[in-house]
Amino acid sequence: MLNWFRPKWKHSNADVRKASLAEIKDPAILVEVIIGDSEWFIRHDALAVLRAMQPDESHYHRLMRESGDEEIRRKVVKVMADENELQRVAENDKYRYIRDAAEHRLAELRTGMWDDIES
Asked: At residue 83, does pLDDT exceed 70?
């Protein structure tokens, strides 16, 4: 009965939550899903939807600070462009492989490694 009053992305059934991701147009709601959903596959699908939206970088910053899913944080590092935030991650993330990913992304940005390919 409670599910009738909840948005679909908060439904108790994981399949309903997963299906609702395509309907979400607000990046902030997707961030809430990525941070708070109990199912890893929903968090990762929500991140794919968020990345396709090309949201403001602040949404990625929040994920880096609040997501407990280290694989989500690793994937977010790969698309970030804010060198200050990447430097913070490279220096402070508790997982070495995420710190390494942030350092690698910083090197890509500083050398323009992908500039010719994207043009």
From this structure: yes
Rg (alpha carbons) of the chain, rounded to whole number: 16
pLDDT digits (tens, 9 = 90+) for 40-50: 999 999 999 99
Instruction: Give the chain as a 3 state SS string.
Output: CHHHCCCHHHCCCHHHHHHHHHHCCCHHHHHHHHHHCCCHHHHHHHHHHHHHHCCCHHHHHHHHHHCCCHHHHHHHHCCCCCHHHHHHHHHHCCCHHHHHHHHHHHHHHHHCCCHHHHC
Residues 6+ apart with CB under 8 A from 57: 80, 81, 82, 85
Distance CA 80, CA 88 (A): 12
